[in-house]
Write a structure and sequence with these properties.
about 260 residues, alpha+beta, five-stranded antiparallel beta sheet, 7 helices, globular
């Protein structure tokens, strides 16, 4: 067999193998990949948005970019921030319809827990429960992974009665873990690199609520490559003093952005 024939057979096999294995969510490729799961990760960055979340000493903040595709759309009608329970909220990054469906599943899990046990579901346990559901969608026929990453934030009461901020992220593959700071979306790599650089100066869990909010806005501005305004982002937070998941007012965001500009 000639060298040219061997090369042709190799490329034909490679093309056919991927063309076959990426059709089914339950079948691994010869390289051990689940192509539909990989495609779901690509879908997370498709809308062109990036999310930054940071856990501080007494609170946790999440900031995400907001882009309105049409000038005729009311800006307040589009949001990626959702309240799950009185002390837990989330930000979805990726395909908006998938995000709403995932939020509905998350709210149902939190509601069932309250009905059964009479207390709000802890953020850490909720992240695990939702990650389990996301993982199931990667191994059952007739389903597909959510094209969205969910960042969960909240205030959790420990057994000793103390309250601590929590930050978790669930990806399309069903992986989850807790973070001091994280990024997701189109420029996830750049965002994480920026946060890792900033962490060398001061541990995030020693920073105040205003400091982590300013740092999150700095990170978004850095990866955007230009100055941002309050209307360009959505900001929400939970604090130990005010555990409810609430959006931060544009006036406060604009004040911090102006302060950052003056310092530069």
């Amino acid at each position: 067999v000639s060298t040219q024939s061997t090369v042709s057979l190799y490329f034909m096999y490679h093309t056919m193998s991927k063309g076959s294995f990426d059709k089914y969510i339950t079948v691994f490729s010869p390289e051990g990949a689940l192509y539909q799961v990989e495609y779901a990760f690509k879908a997370v960055g498709l809308p062109g948005l990036t999310t930054i979340a940071i856990r501080g000493k007494d609170g946790v903040v999440v900031v995400t970019q907001q882009k309105i595709p049409d000038k005729l759309i009311k800006q307040e009608s589009i949001s990626n921030m959702y309240q799950i329970s009185p002390t837990v909220g989330c930000c979805t990054t990726g395909r908006n319809p998938d995000g709403r469906a995932f939020v509905g599943t998350t709210r149902q899990a939190a509601s069932d827990y309250v009905y059964k046990f009479g207390v709000d579901m802890p953020c850490s346990l909720l992240a695990k429960r939702i990650a389990d559901k996301a993982q199931v969608s990667t191994q059952e026929m007739g389903m597909r992974p959510y094209g969205v990453t969910m960042t969960l934030v909240g205030i959790e009461q420990l057994d000793n009665g103390s309250k601590v901020p929590q930050l978790y992220k669930v990806d399309p593959a069903g992986f989850y873990c807790g973070y001091f700071a994280t990024a997701s979306g189109e420029k996830e790599i750049e965002g994480i690199a920026y946060l890792e650089k900033k962490q060398k100066g001061a541990a995030f869990d020693t920073l105040s609520n205003e400091e982590i909010l300013s740092l999150a806005l700095e990170a978004i501005q850095h990866i955007s490559g230009s100055a941002i305004k309050a209307r360009d982002v959505e900001v929400a937070r939970c604090t130990v003093d005010a555990p409810a998941f609430n959006k931060v007012a544009d006036t406060e965001v604009e004040r911090l952005l102006t302060k950052m500009a003056e310092q530069d």
